[in-house]
UniProtKB/TrEMBL annotation:
Keywords, comma-separated and alphabetical: Membrane, Transmembrane, Transmembrane helix
Record protein name field: Low molecular weight protein antigen 6 PH domain-containing protein
Residue spans crossing the bilayer: 39-57, 192-212
Residues annotated as domain Low molecular weight protein antigen 6 PH: 60-130
Amino acid sequence: MTIRSTGGRVAAFAWLAFAALNIADLVFGFTGDPEYSLTTFTIAALLLLGCGIAYTIGLRPAIVGDDEAVTVRNPLRDTRAPWPAVRSIEGRDALVVRFTGPDGGDLQTRAWVHQTSPRAQAKAEARARKQNAKLGAQVKGRSPAGYAAERLNEMRDRLRPKTRSGAPDKAAAAKNPEAEAVRGTVSWSIPAIASLAVPGVAVVVCAVLAAVN
């Protein structure tokens, strides 16, 4: 199961297409004679920096659940928590995964994907209350993060150790020494950092050269 932001991906691909066309115009001169000047290189560096931002903010972030773990991929960092290490998964204005960290302590990560403002969540709950009043039923004001949390919790329960009846055995999972030894990991994304650092350094160098000249 992979959850991404559709709006973020559309905006990122739109910027990448815009940047690619403009860089091609700078290099090949589709709209005029190409001019290889400091200004041209500065514009190209700024376009590439925008591509790095589009990648880290629009394309990278995701929530991935598989048979072994849940992975929260944020703009610059990746968190992977094997299911036995997951303490809780909650979703309200953002999806939050609490898990056993590399040092054995409790850690939590907040997903970049499906973040909503408290005001938007309050509106969703208000709509749910109105529906409850009209229908006489309990309708939960569920945010996208809340729906994602429900799906991940269902996956987590399905992958827990089972009793003979087939139900998830929470007590057995809690007492399992192997489960206690499993820990999550948090790491920086080198490609994401490079996509911002390389064009960022180029922009700074161009700015320094322009100031000197």
